[in-house]
Amino acid sequence: GADLETLSPDLTTNPKQGDVPYGTITTIHESPLKFGLLYCGTDDGKIHFSNDGGYSWKEISKALPQGLWVSRVWASAHKEGRLYVSLNGYRSDNFQPYIFVTEDNGITWTNISSNLPYEPVNVIKEGPANENLLFVGTDNGLYVSLDRGKTYMAFSGGLPRVAVHDLVIQEREKDLVVGTHGRSIYRADLEELSLMYAEVLNSELYAFPVEK
To answer: Could you tell me which residues come within 8 angstroms of residue 12 by beta carbon, excluding any fewer than 6 positions away?
Structure first.
């Protein structure tokens, strides 16, 4: 950090400033599959991507709902060009859940909010070992999808109904670490969930490996 280089112009709309910081980058993620493939989201609803390590940028959010806080951009570890995005409108009294995915770097988008309850979304993360596994943190809890966003279930055993602001998956230990708003940190074992592939879900009986 002794020497820093400015890589982008202002990626926001440079809106009129108020009492709350506005017109800032809120989330950034680099693709784990390609060095220099970067995604940025802002608090005024803009999403850009760079294919060259930040030297040039292209906006990819024009087809998405406008003016919302981009709470998370998350590049897939399973397919290059696949990006998950969560938007949050609670600062404008909009509590609709917004989650979208693109398979082509933002040329087309699919809404995968599905059956999530009427709660603003703070974070989405993808299972590193299973592309169908998604975790979503909202202002009122944690949810999991086993089918890449077609349906969601509450993932709340032992977790209070509390705002979930961040999620980290520890790949070696196969643990999900949950950061909440003022209600501590929680950990969930993902070993069996990570094995919930279609053939397992569709089988009448399946025996998971047992620890030695």
So the answer is: 23, 24, 25, 42, 43, 44, 46
**Which residues, in sequence order, are CB contacts of 24 under 8 Å at separation 6+?**
12, 42, 43
Q: Residue 183 pLDDT more than 90?
A: no
DSSP symbol at 162:
-
Which residues of the chain form beta strands (DSSP E)?
A: 25-30, 38-42, 47-50, 58-59, 69-75, 83-89, 94-102, 110-111, 121-126, 134-138, 141-145, 153-154, 164-170, 175-180, 185-189
Interval 130-154 mean pLDDT:
96
What is the pTM for the complete model shown?
Answer: 0.93
In angstroms, rounded to a whole number, what is the distance separating the alpha carbons of residues 178 and 127?
Answer: 14
- Cβ within 8 Å of residue 177, ≥6 positions away: 167, 168, 169, 170, 185, 186, 187
Average pLDDT over every residue of 33-60: 96
> Measured between alpha carbons, how far is residue 106 from residues 45, 60, 82, 93 in Å?
14, 5, 8, 27
Once rounded to an integer, what is the mean pLDDT over residues 112-122?
A: 97
Check: CB of residue 38 under 8 Å from CB of residue 32: no
Q: Are 85 and 70 in contact (CB under 8 A)?
A: yes
Burial category of 141 from C-beta neighbours within 10 Å (exposed 0-12, middle 13-18, buried 19 and up): buried
Average pLDDT, the chain: 94
Within a 13 Å sphere around the CA of 26, how many CA atoms are in the beta-carbon half?
24
Q: Is the pLDDT of residue 208 over 90?
A: no
